[in-house]
Every structure is written in C-alpha cells, then in structure tokens.
Amino acid sequence: MTPDPDFFTYKNCRIATYQIGEGPPLLLLHGWASSAKVMMPIARQLAHLRTCHLIDLPGFGQSDEPPEAWSVNEYADMVDAFIQTLRPKPVDLLAHSYGGRITLKILADKTRKDQVGKVLITGGAGMKPRRTFSYYIKKSVSTLLKIPARILPSSLRESYLRKVRSSRLWKKLGSSDYRKLSGVMRESFVLSVRDHLDSLLPSIQHEVLLLWGDRDDATPLYQGERMEKGINRSALVIMEGAGHYAFLDKPKQFAAIAEAYYEPGEANG
Predict the structure, then answer these.
(1) Which member of 53, 235, 239, 254 has the lowest number of beta carbons within 10 Å of its beta carbon?
(2) Residue of 245, 229, 224 whose CA lies nearest to 127
(3) Rounded average pLDDT over 90-109
(4) How far is CA 171 from the centre of its chain?
(5) d(Cα 143, Cα 135) in Å, to the nearest integer?
(6) Given this model, what pLDDT does residue 59 score?
(7) Closest listed residue to residue 26, CA positions, set 60, 7, 55, 50
(8) Which string of DSSP letters, residue by residue, matches the chain?
(9) Mean pLDDT lowest for which of 46-55, 133-142, 190-199, 206-215?
C-alpha cells in the first residue's frame, strides 16, 4: 500500500511526494508513464537502510502536469529543487528509465555535484538508440503523410492533420508511449526522446552502479554497456532473466545488490 502523499510546489506545479524508512536520504525516480507507486516495492526493501523519498514526476501519478512542455532540463531542475529540501546532503539516487535520463542531466552539472552521493541507475534512458530499417520506413511514411499540409490553405491544414493523426496508419507509426499522450505531455515526450545524452557521460564523476536486465527491450542492454564505457566511475551488473523492470522481475536479487551498494558506512562514498 502506498502511503498518503505530501505535496511539493515547483513553478506552480503541485507535485506528490512520499516518504518511508529511516536513515540517510535516498531519492527514487520512476520512468515515463509510470509513478512512485511502481518504485514503492524496492523502496520498502531498502527502508531499513534509508529514508526513501519518492516523487510522482509532473504529469504522472498524483502530480499536476507541468504548466508547459518540459524538456529533460526542466524535469532535472525540478528534481534538484526537491533535493534542496532534503537533509542531510549528499542524497543518494536510485533511478529507473526516464528517471535515469533526469539523473544523467543532474550528474553532468558541476554546480550540483555536491548534492548527490551514490547513484544506481536501472534500465536508464538517454542513450541514442540504434535505428532499425523499419524505423526509417516509418519515418519516411510519416513525412509523406504530412506533405499535403504544406500546400493546403491554412484554413484546411489543421483539419487535414487531425484526420491524419486519427488514422489507423498514423497510429501504427507512432510509439505506444506517444499515442497515449495528449497536449503538454506529448510535447514533453517529444522534447525528451530527442535529447540524446551520450556526450554528457565523460563529464560525470560520480560513482554509478548500472543494474540492467538482459531481456530489457525498452532500453536494451547495449545502452547500459554504453553508459558503463562512458562514465569513468561506473560498473554494470547484468541480471539474467530480467526485463526493463528488473526490480520487479527479480526483486530479491535486485534488493540484495542495492542493499550492499547502499550499506551504511559505504554510502555517499
């Protein structure tokens, strides 16, 4: 059962936060189209070592949508503002998927380096994906579908685009995450997935444990391997038989590794 949230306000956005456990602070960040509820099982397993803080990122769970489309930078600024409210410093992080994308932004910012201690990223997003042949086919078709809008009168253009976006063909072209969104969150999603963070890796000096499922099909293992190669003080642990949600697929194994990593006396090293 998820505890009742407290609320943190950032730029007129009401953000739900949760807290369980005792000890030094550990902030857990969930992935896109998810919520703090998904991270609660691993938080409960670490609550004997850490005061676990969880956030419903804006647009998910019980948090408001951002007031306008946010890029990864705005999400990182929000998380950093929340970290400023926690004591003591530095704060350890455990981030999944999109939360990993946010974490990479924070770690690469030298002005924030003293705010964060140890970091565990699992199934982290942010690396430029390998493009398949089918990707380029879909991109070409979507471009062709948009061409008539360029030559139509402005009075007809929006009506045509609405019909295209509601067509079966268009729905097959877009990702499932994109199709589920509307308005400001759809724009935020586009800003985020276009922001590839590979170039930030060499500037990260924090200790980072990368914990990856070998069956992860959302952020495939090669992306974890790329992070390990790019981040100087990182180590990659591969969990056999686990997918994108390794902490749910293999909860005991994941928790044992995380507990050893965050063990008191070794934390924030």
Answers:
(1) 235
(2) 224
(3) 97
(4) 24
(5) 12
(6) 96
(7) 50
(8) -PPPPEEEEETTEEEEEEEEE-SSEEEEE--TT--HHHHHHHHHHHTTT-EEEEE--TTSTTSPPPSS---HHHHHHHHHHHHTTSSSSSEEEEEETHHHHHHHHHHT-GGGGGGEEEEEEES---SPPPPPHHHHHHHHHHHHHHHHHHHS-HHHHHHHHHHHHTSHHHHHHS-HHHHT--HHHHHHHHHHHT---GGGGGG--S-EEEEEETT-SSS-HHHHHHHHHHSTTEEEEEETT--S-HHHHSHHHHHHHHHHHT-TTTTT-
(9) 133-142
Q: Evaluate if residue 24 carries a pLDDT over 80.
A: yes
Using CA atoms, how far residue 59 sits from 69, 103, 112, 115, 260, in Å, is 10, 18, 25, 25, 33
Cβ neighbours around 107 below 10 Å, total: 24
Radius of gyration (C-alpha) of the chain in whole angstroms: 20
Sheet architecture: strand order including 6-10: 6-10, 13-21, 51-55, 25-29, 91-96, 116-122, 208-213, 234-239
Question: Tokens 């589920």 map to which residue?
Answer: 180
Q: Which two tokens stand for residue 138?
A: 């879909």
The pLDDT, as a whole number, for residue 176 is 55
Contact criterion met (CB below 8 Å) for 239 and 214: yes
pLDDT, greater one: 124 or 155 = 124
Pairing of strands 13-21, 208-213: unpaired
**Cβ(29)–Cβ(93) below 8 Å:** yes
Amino acid identity of 149?
A
Q: How many residues does the chain have?
A: 269
Cis peptide, bond prior to residue 90, ω within 30 of zero: yes
The token pair at 6 is 């407290």
Quote the tokens at residue 30.
């969930």
Decide: 185 and 209 in contact? Cβ < 8 Å: no
